[in-house]
Amino acid sequence: MPKIAIIGAGHAGLALIRTLKDNEQIEIVGVCDIDGEAPGLAEAKQLGIPAYGSCDELLGEAADLDLIINVTADPEMCERLEELKSPKTELIHGSTAELVWELIAAQQRMMNEVRERMIEMKDLYQLGIKLSSSTDLKEVYGYVIRYATRLTGTPAGSIALLDEGAGEMYLAHAEGFSEHFYKFSRWKLRPGGLTSYILNQQEPVIIPDISKFDEGVNSALEREGVRSIIATPLTARRKIIGILYVDDFIERHFSDGEASILGLLSGYAALSIEKMKLLDDTRKMAVTDGLTGLRNQQEFLVQLDAETIRAERYGRKLSVIGLDIDYFKRYNDEHGHLAGNDLLKVLARAISENSRKADVCARIGGEEFAVIMPEAALPEAVKLAERLRRTVEGMHKRFHESMKSPITISVGVAIYPDHGAAPKELYKSADDALYKAKAAGRNRVVVYPDVSAAEFMENPAVS
User: Fold this and answer.
1) Where in the sequence of the chain do the CATH 3.30.450.40 domains occur?
2) Can you name the residues that pair with 31 across neighbouring β-strands?
3) Which of 179, 173, 157, 143 lies closest to 249 in space, CA to CA?
4) pLDDT tens digits, residue range 135-191?
């Protein structure tokens, strides 16, 4: 193993020490500088390399030297070294030493870049494993953003997906921003805007300072204080599905390497997101009524069972509403099956809009619908039932294109455990009350077993 001595421990010597210290093919046997405060001497001591204040002392103790590298640029030092070194020891100095230093530094930079690429490839491999094993779309978004920001050294990132039908982008997931940013969920594609510009590119887009970007940027980014961006289209099977952004809050000139690794990562991300979206759509189809978008009967029963167990365990209220369109067959006969479908969709929308977020709205079959109301007492359920009845009664004016003629509904309401301790028993009670409403003349709400809404609101004890 060649033994090397370094003469001069200033900035050049310090850089040389740092460049050579990890090279296992050589041994630095000593570093010398007449300035005891030279930074290279301190570095040498930390690394366990002998440090000297004179070349006489170094060469007197270091036997069998193969090479002396003089980076002092002092001609007298060169003469002194020639006198002191042994005949077999090579001495390089001046421009030759500088060239050697540059070559070694270049080699070290190359090795560092190779190591960095290996780390990046390892990260991409680990990301690929996580994406392939994940079954949750939000989890996939999180993995992609966290790896993207880590590989590019950025503090924030987001994924926006393209809604081609609406000509809009919507925020699927974001990390590293303030709470206000997450309220910004959808934006229109604007000709000449930043989003349109990114979607039209084949490679990642680097914007060192968005304030100087001619095309204009989204106001949400400006409010958030974002200054620099790398953004790359998410393309799966030649179709653009969205954009992956990584952001910094300072002006920053990203390297081509950072953009390149983000481009590779976006390929993994796009395929995984497309796969998960298809899987998510399949799951929704399994529990959703295809015509109205509400839960189907099977999922309604699953949710009712779960909510009944929860109500029993924690001693909470649970109400169920059943409703049915009055004279729906007559409506279908008069206006046709397609018009009947349009009516069902409009009614489903009205039910969803008037219910709480926690409620489970379902189409049980045909013209019959139901609503599960967790933690809702009977008065609250009766109020919703009445609100739905009145809404449907006046809906023809609002939806005259989808509703060929006015309609009404009959509604039944039941509560756990008073009207049924078991899920099917509870739903049957609501259904029985619904048919009491029909028998009493339709277009009304009945609380199980046979109490009108008006009577119940005057005296809730009657139920």
Assistant:
1) 134-285
2) 6, 51
3) 157
4) 788 888 888 888 889 888 899 999 999 988 788 888 988 999 988 887 778 888 888
Residue 96: per-residue pLDDT: 58
| Cα dihedral across residues 9, 12, 15, 21: positive or negative | negative
Listed as own residue / partner, the contacts of 178-185 with beta carbons closer than 8 Å and 24 or more positions apart are 178/224, 180/223, 180/224, 181/220, 181/224, 184/218, 184/220
pLDDT at 104 over 70: no
Distance CA 150, CA 57 (A): 48
Helix (H) / strand (E) containing 231: strand 228-236
Q: Which helix or strand (DSSP H or E) is residue 230 part of?
A: strand 228-236
pLDDT value at 301 more than 90: yes
Count CB-CB contacts under 10 A for residue 6: 28
Q: What does the pLDDT look like over 184-210, one tens digit per residue?
A: 788 888 887 788 888 888 889 998 998
Instruction: Give the number of other CB atoms < 10 A from CB of residue 202.
Output: 8
**In the predicted model, is pLDDT for residue 15 greater than 90?**
no
Intervals of CATH 3.30.70.270 along the chain: 297-462
Q: Choose among 396, 418, 216: nearest CA to 320.
A: 418
CATH topology of domain 134-285: Beta-Lactamase (3.30.450)
The pLDDT confidence band at residue 349, using thresholds 50, 70 and 90, is: very high
Residues 373 and 426: their CA atoms lie apart, in Å, by: 12
d(CA 267, CA 126): 14
> Is 37 annotated as catalytic?
no
Percent of the residues in the chain that have a pLDDT greater than 70, as a whole number: 91
Which pLDDT score, from 0 to 100, does residue 347 have?
A: 95
What DSSP character marks residue 295? B
| Token duo for residue 198 | 């990114």
> Which segments of the chain belong to CATH 3.40.50.720?
3-106
Say what the pLDDT of residue 97 is: 56
Given the residues 224, 307, 367, 386, select the one marked as catalytic. 367
Token pair for 232: 């790359």
pLDDT cut 90: percent of the chain above it: 45
* Under 8 Å between Cβ of 239 and 271: no
CATH of 3-106, one of 3.40.50.720, 3.20.20.140, 3.40.50.2000, 3.40.30.10: 3.40.50.720
Say which CATH superfamily domain 297-462 falls into: Reverse transcriptase/Diguanylate cyclase domain (3.30.70.270)
